[in-house]
Amino acid sequence: MNAIRVESSGGGSVRAGAAREPRARPGLTLAAVAVVQFMVSLDLSVVNVGLPRIAAGLGFGAVGLTWVIHAYALTFGGLLLLGGKAADRYGRKRVLLSGLLLFGLASLAGGFAQEPGHLVAARAAQGIGAAALAPAALALLATTFPEGKARVRAFGVWSAMNAAGGALGVLIGGVLTEYAGWRWVMFVNVPMAAGALLMAWRGVAAAPPPARGGRPDVVGAVLATAGMTLLVFGIVRTDQYGWSSPVTLVTLAVAAALLAAFVHVERTTAREPLVRLGLFANRSVTGANAYNLLLGAAMASSFYFMSLYLQRVLGTGPAMTGLMFLPLALAVVVGSVLAIRLGYRLAPRTLLAAGGSLTAAAFAWFGLISTDGDYATDVLIPSIVLGVGFGLCLGPLVNTATSGVAAHESGTASGLLNSSRQIGASLGLAALGTAAQHRTGPTVTLESLNDGYAFGLALGAVLLAAAVLVALTVLRAER
Hints:
The protein has 19 helices and no strands.
């Protein structure tokens, strides 16, 4: 209960005027964090089913359309470390409320977009807001709930909402796209952001910032985001410029230089670095983030490929496509609940290896899709396997990534974990999407589209097998 007293006492020690500030209310804090995580996770997948109609409505090209996803994932992932550091320095409640306000306004602007650039800019602004609110919310969860059963339950709720947001996003996006129009995949975030803002305002005490170091390293954040953006851009553009072309080589070289400069700045900056490189000496932090990067790469591409397969190959409508993902969403919740029960007896490493193996098997099964595929055998059953496996991973992954981390770095560790997931999502979609496009070839038919999607999904199984290897070799076995 120490963490709870720290938050409460901090809010109660700020002069007489602080009496108006709300006391820490763990239940309301958990509810606010759950809504936040559902919302930011939903936004990674809610646009997938609507992509064909977004392209038609705003005039996106085939390559430009992927930036509706990349703009969010890259700004989200690239600025998460800065968001985590800001939460540690300026106060988690303040950063959480600011992020929610920006996220809600960006969602509103995206819904009114009139040109491709408007929507991409709004998605980037959403990513900036998410980069502020997600690590602040997760750090609040880590400090509000003590070690033991309360912590396991809290992270179980967080993981269930994280998983449900990603899976239900496809269902919600499909229904909204077909019956209300694609603009509602942006508008849907506005009431959620408003509700989370109200709950956080009432349920989270205004405590002193847990860390009062130097100013956060904005230069490092810009270098990291620019480097990752150029890296993704270089990979995506290989559909026009081959891997050996000067354009691709120069783009990737500049991206590498920017990322190397980021590491150098983190080692030498006089400001507060985004991430203390010594944090990676903690095997739990290193292993969890490597696992998370691979998991994010595979999962983001799965929603993308399967939604396109169902619509473009099997001819399913947007609403029905979203409905077909509902068993996956429910299976993720089942896996998350199962992880809570097993988490009392099994080491996180064991759950991560088991969950990763199940998810890899599901991706391999998806790799067998065909143009005359049957929903029950080609989509439904592997979706359930994937959902249970994915749900098993989430809670133990968060618990592992923040294990043994000092309280003043919990925001940084939370931001790092979220960052690895989003960067993995963008890199995975760029790499596997490009590989699938090359497999499809210049002549687009149902058969060639199917072959491309199947190839991308099979590559996802390889990424998850690598994640299992990381869990078994890097993470320790103790509970």
